[in-house]
Design goal:
The complex is a heterodimer of chains A (401) and B (458). By secondary structure, chain A is α/β, with parallel strands linked by helices. In chain A, 36% of the residues lie in helices and 16% in strands. In chain A, β10, α7 and β11 form a beta-alpha-beta unit. In chain B, α5 packs parallel to α6. The chains are: A alpha/beta (401), B alpha/beta (458). Chains A and B meet through α2, α3, α4, β6 and β8 of A and β4, α2, α3, β8 and β10 of B. Chain B: Keywords: Flavoprotein, FMN, Monooxygenase, Oxidoreductase.
């Protein structure tokens, strides 16, 4: 019987050699190749082979660390990485269907620059661009920029008043930032370039618009220097663990990556986000809620568990994550996906514990299993990432009707 | 007399958002679609050019308070296009202008270091500084700095970026699966930089780039700009393309190098140059004349005049005489943020000079502007153009040229097919790439990390 539920969305989160800290020591890992274009091109080709909706590429403006406020001094972990947006741009011409979402820190960067960079990623990928926005609370990142004094934060107690205020501010700033990204994407109407030889005009300037954004943290005049991108509005995503980011996702994002640890948890999170959407007066398409899972996948449960144990031993500690950790076979993961999505999840973003092993298990094990169950696409349809996510291409907010 | 022939360096400038670019030509394609950039880059690489160059502008141009609509408008993001072009080219250098004013060193350094890794050592940065409040309205920190402060900040910015490029020495990553040591050094990329404009410290995220640092370009022409280039740049993007001016500039800049412990060949002089080709010199001149008329329409001529007069002159006939009224010497309001405006420091004198020229030649407004803004460096048959380029380089007027075609994206093809083979026959331009990195194409050494003492870097 054909599946009548909305299409399942699958994403892979790419980070270095994989999400487990000892991933780089696995036999098929290529830790000396992490800084090459070929490494990332191979991973994205594998993800595209599995017809995944999109990949995200991790990034931050500080060295990877297991402590909150600076580098951890560990020599047994992958440290150092490339700018995720440029990795996405570098592999865009080498792929043809998959969505590309680099992570971008919004706390220290210029919305004008990021807006045109993502618009350009949309051009070079033919309508497959997006961005996962991230706020920065790490003191070392603030010191790398040196422009502002970092707010007082207590990582051990994010609920005490100073921390709460700092978190609220950062996410409000991020919401302003996304608002500017979106206004700049709309600042050129689709048909602004007219090339009218008769009048000598390259553009119709009435179809270009100042955005005149003024907020607590910055103001931006516009218009963008880059014309409206192919998708009109590239996809904006955010990872959300608590009330403030839920509110950001509800106000500003197309996709919310969330970290439920059970079906009940997933149901609670979706309720929270829907409530936040209502509070924000969000109209149009609701945010797509996508659950993150770290995955250790092998042909048998024992093999997967043994591999995880071996990696944990190499790392010197049991692996812990903000997301739920799945250890088992692709078929068992397909079962879990079937159970969890029933509560209203649009899909799953899988964080491969080891690259390329667990990514190949997704594309060559999980995806065929889901296809057998009629639960996942057997071909790419639609030209753009928006289309695949079931999101219509919006008209520019500035276009006169 | 018999010094060996100099090897010419050639680069391709993607046509920009000014009236050099003729968008009304039937052959003209998109300035935004990636296919245009691929076409242009592949032509340049087929011709064995040293690099491709992208300019940058961070606010749409305006005149009389309205977005300027007569030229190409709009461009993509420089870093994103260069990284994508690295996927469709193999040897071609990838150079871009990135403004130091509306960026932070940490971010720009990680973008260039990343681009250098992703292109396997082909990145170049044209460092510009253009501090105007008009462009600043698009950024968190707008503001204004006087000229001398601008150079200081640009210098400080570059020094900070160098500190970051050098913060990883290049031997930190072991990635030894057996022993479990990924790093040799527990705190790689440690840096601290403090000066009048920046106070930053911490750890850089990008390990040392294949070229060590991207190739550094500088474009300023002032005394400060020349010293800055002599101290810190690998190449100058100059505007002196003629024999006499070129030789003077070349000699002036190169003589400054020993003062910074550098050899003359450590800094290349590369003027921008336009070209028009024809089967014969005569035919090329005819085409060139037509191109000039396309570049300077009657409307465009009036807009140029307004930038000097600082007045709305839309009521004037471009085919008639120059205005009798004098320029408005008040605050410049016609074209905020435009470099062309700053070039005319004494508008009254410029107006007088232009009137005299127009009267002497019986020129209309349009004819005068065509003459005054003339910037066609090379016009002729392929043999004539090849000889002219070679003569200028061998005479030390430059080390090569950054060619600016007027048609996107195909404007480089004729040059690649007809002029390049003649230069190769003369033995003054490569027939194959010898190296893989841009520094190798340009004959520049690979910089060693500066040794800096770090206090409290942990």
């Amino acid at each position: 019987m054909p599946d009548q539920s909305p299409p399942l969305h699958l994403a892979a989160a790419l980070d270095g050699a994989g999400w487990h800290p000892a991933a780089w020591r696995e036999p098929d890992a290529r830790p000396a190749r992490l800084l090459t274009a070929a490494y990332w091109a191979d991973l994205v080709a594998e993800a595209e082979r599995g017809m995944l909706d999109l990949v995200t590429i991790e990034d931050s403006l500080s060295l990877q660390s297991e402590v909150f406020d600076g580098p951890d001094g560990r020599v047994d972990r992958v440290r150092g990485r490339l700018d995720a947006l440029l990795i996405a741009a570098r592999i865009a011409p080498l792929s043809s269907h998959i969505g590309l979402l680099p992570i971008a820190v919004v706390t220290h960067t210029e919305p004008f620059h990021l807006s045109k960079a993502i618009a350009t990623l949309d051009y070079v990928s033919g309508g497959r661009a997006g961005v996962q926005v991230r706020v920065s609370g790490r003191r070392d990142e603030w010191a790398h920029f040196g422009r502002r004094v970092p707010p007082e934060m207590h990582p051990d107690n994010l609920d005490e008043p100073a921390s709460r205020l700092a978190i609220t501010d950062r996410f409000d700033e991020a919401a302003d930032y996304v608002e500017v990204l979106r206004r700049l994407w709309d600042s050129w109407e689709d048909d602004a370039e007219i090339r009218d030889a008769a009048t000598g005009r390259f553009i119709d300037r009435d179809r270009l618009h100042y955005i005149d954004f003024t907020g607590r943290w910055f103001s931006v005049r516009g218009p963008s220097i880059t014309p409206r991108p192919p998708q009109g509005q590239p996809i904006v995503a955010a990872l959300a663990h608590r009330a403030e980011p839920y509110r950001l996702a509800a106000r500003a994002a197309d996709i919310a990556f969330v970290t439920p640890h059970s079906v009940a948890d997933a149901r609670w999170i979706i309720d929270e986000i829907r409530r936040a959407e209502a509070d924000a007066g969000r109209g149009g398409e609701p945010v797509r809620v996508v659950a993150d899972l770290v995955v250790f996948l092998d042909e048998t449960t024992t093999a997967a568990q043994d591999r995880k144990d071996r990696l944990d031993e190499l790392a010197g500690a049991g692996y812990a994550s903000d997301a739920a950790i799945f250890t088992g076979t692709p078929a068992q993961l397909a079962d879990l996906i079937g159970d969890w999505r029933a509560v209203g999840l649009a899909g799953f973003r899988l964080r491969p514990a080891v690259l390329p092993h667990d990514l190949a298990q997704i594309t060559r094990g999980l995806v065929p299993e889901l296809q057998r169950r009629g639960a996942f696409r057997s071909a790419y349809h639609g030209d753009t990432l928006r289309t695949r996510l079931g999101l219509p291409r919006p008209a520019s907010r500035y276009a006169s009707v | 007399m018999s010094r060996p022939l100099k090897q010419i360096h050639l680069a391709a400038h993607f046509p920009g958002v000014n009236n050099t670019t003729v968008w009304s030509d039937p052959r003209a394609g998109s300035h935004i679609e990636f296919a245009s950039f691929v076409h242009f880059a592949r032509t340049a690489e087929r011709a064995k050019f040293d690099f491709l160059f992208l300019a940058e502008g961070l606010r749409l141009r305006e005149q009389n308070g309205l977005i300027y609509d007569l030229d190409v408008v709009g461009r993509p993001d420089t870093f994103t296009v260069l990284a994508a072009l690295a996927a469709v080219t193999d040897r071609l250098g990838l150079a871009g202008t990135i403004n130091s004013t509306f960026n932070e060193p940490y971010e720009v350094a990680r973008q260039f270091a990343s681009l250098d890794h992703l292109s396997a050592g082909r990145s170049a940065w044209n460092v510009v500084t253009s501090w105007d409040a008009f462009t600043g309205e698009n950024f968190r920190r707008g503001g204004y700095l006087p000229q001398h402060e601008r150079y200081l900040r640009a210098r400080n910015f570059l020094e900070a970026a160098w500190t970051l490029f050098d913060s990883w020495r290049g031997d930190e990553i072991l990635a030894d699966k057996e022993s479990g040591a990924f790093l040799r050094d527990p705190y790689p990329g440690a840096f601290r930089h403090r000066d009048a404009h920046f106070d930053i410290a911490g750890h850089f995220t990008v390990p040392r780039a294949p070229q060590g640092r991207p190739v550094i370009f500088q474009a300023g022409d002032s005394e400060e700009g020349r010293e800055f280039a002599a101290s810190s740049a690998d190449a100058i993007f100059s505007r002196h393309g003629t024999l006499a001016e070129g030789r003077t500039f070349y000699a002036d800049v190169k003589r400054r190098l020993p003062g910074y412990g550098r050899r003359p060949e450590d800094l290349l002089i590369l003027p921008a140059a336009t070209f028009v080709l024809g089967d014969t010199d005569e035919q090329a001149r005819e085409v060139a004349h037509e191109v000039r008329r396309q570049q300077v329409s009657g409307q465009t001529a009036i807009r140029f005049l307004e930038q000097v007069w600082n007045r709305d002159l839309s009521g004037y006939d471009p085919d008639g005489p120059l205005p009798d009224i004098d320029p408005d010497l008040g605050e410049h309001t016609v074209a905020r943020g435009r470099a062309s405006v700053r070039m005319h420091r004494d508008p009254q004198a410029t107006a007088r000079e232009w009137r005299e020229r127009a009267a002497a030649g019986e020129l209309s407004i349009r004819e005068l502007i065509i003459e005054i803004t003339g910037r066609q460096n090379f016009v002729g048959s392929p043999a004539t153009v090849a000889a002219a380029i070679n003569d200028l380089v061998q005479a030390d007027a430059s080390d090569g040229f950054i060619l600016v075609p007027h048609i996107t994206p195909g404007g480089l093809e004729e040059f690649a097919d007809t002029v390049v083979p003649l230069l190769q026959e003369r033995g003054v331009f490569r027939s194959e790439y010898q190296g893989t990195t841009l520094r190798e194409h340009l004959g520049l050494g690979r910089p060693q990390p500066l040794q800096r003492e770090l206090q409290g870097a942990s």
